[in-house]
Amino acid sequence: MKTSLVVNIVFLIYVVILIGIGVVAHKRVKKSEDFSAEYWVGGRSFGPWLVAFTWATSWTSGGSFIGTPAIYYTYGWSALLWQAGAGVLGIIGILAIGRRISTIATESNCMTLPDLFMDRYENRLMGLFAALIIIIFGISYMISQYVAAARILEIMTGIPYAIGIILFTIVVGIYTSFGGLRGVAYTNVFQGLIMVGGSIAIAVILVMKVGGLSEITTGLVNLDENLITGNGPDNWLPINTAFSMFFVLGVAVMAQPHVVTRLFSVKDVDTVKKSGVLVAVVTFVWFMSLFVSSIAGRVLIPNIDVPDQIFPVLVIKYAPTILAGIMLSAPFAAVMSTVASLLLSTSSAIIRDIVERNSKESLNEKKLKKYSYITTGVISLLVMGLAINPPNFLQAIVIFAISGFAASFTMPIAVGMFWKDATPAGGLASMIAGFLTMLLLYAFKINNPLGFSPLVWGLFVSLIAIFVVSKFTKKSSDEVLERYFGE
Q1: DSSP secondary structure string, 202-242?
Q2: Whole-prediction pTM value?
Q3: What share of residues in the chain are helix, strand, coil (percent, to 5)?
Q4: pLDDT (tens digit, 9 = 90+) per residue, 152-176?
Q5: Are 135 and 346 within 8 A, CB to CB?
Q6: In whole angstroms, what is the distance from residue 462 CA to residue 464 CA?
Q7: Rounded to 5 degrees, what angle do the CA atoms 33, 39, 45 make?
Q8: Using CA atoms in the order 443, 249, 41, 416, what is the torsion angle rounded to 10 degrees?
């Protein structure tokens, strides 16, 4: 379904604004006396609004407006239980571990997640392995987002998929490469407002179109009574699956490197508390609006060939032209904000955690800038090439990537921050155990052993590994125990 000229003009203005924000941020990067701190962690100067929106928009992705509405549309009210973890544990994560992580990151000058692991566990191999995991799952995650961006452009403008991939690569590469984290943060606030505002607007329009929430429920019952039951159509969400998704969409948030490192950019501890409250409000309004839009869309358009297209189709069909241009920027904004954050976390893993740490001589500011810009651009081009032949189901690759991060990093982060007896060998064993468990289950296509997600098994094995290995290996140094636990 092709959009009008007005919609395309509004969308073009949005893209130009993004590039402009990147240029403004680049000027700040150029003036900074410490390129690494400014480029990777925004000079540790972000307040609650910047932290909240970079956390929320980095956490969500193209799947939030493409794959997630498709789930809501297909399975009705049961999808709220499927989504519950993201609405609870993500917020708990920023409030429970955020203050501790941000304090340690500032005191130890950590700029990447591998930095944090190396500081806590005093294990250089662990830092290198963490960097490799970030590269593997980061690129996988970005492929799904490039696909989502190209599909959005294809629906909106009729631009062929391959051309859409190229255009997206150019835009996101420019403002991310030159703006660093500050450019990403500024654009995330702008994009976040569009995402939340667009979601609320389309929800209101569609509810009015159907005639109210009661009419939506009646319409769902007439289509399929299972659309309003707990397990949903075809018993798609039995209790073990719901339990698994609580971890996939909840616990997983706390271990995404492009999300956790946003806590490294805060200016003080009070910022973490305020941003946690803001994230709670923003995400609740956001996802409830998307849910209402999707179930209203099921009543208005009972059958659609590609459920992933439901949100763009609803916007194009029912929204006024100018609003449609703004609203269709929302899924594109979600994609771009996530890709920008992933690009930075992946390129930092290469430059800071692999190249810089293993260089025989220290890299000066000029070389760091050059390598950082080039690496970010090259990764963007690499992902573009890999995304030319898209996967069949966007949400599947998103789940794989976030589960991979969570299985590898959740226990080393959570246990390491709060259990003084976690040893360097225990931390490394936990990371490797979680990573290999996830990878083997996917490689052998053992998707749901005993009905539970591979992530649940990865977390379980990772937790066992850190406790068992830590009991029989050398403890952390007195200096680390003093800084982390006051002992």
Answers
A1: HHHHHHHHHTSHHHHHHHHHHH-GGGGSSS-GGG---HHHH
A2: 0.85
A3: 85, 0, 15
A4: 777 767 788 889 888 888 888 777 7
A5: yes
A6: 6
A7: 75
A8: -80
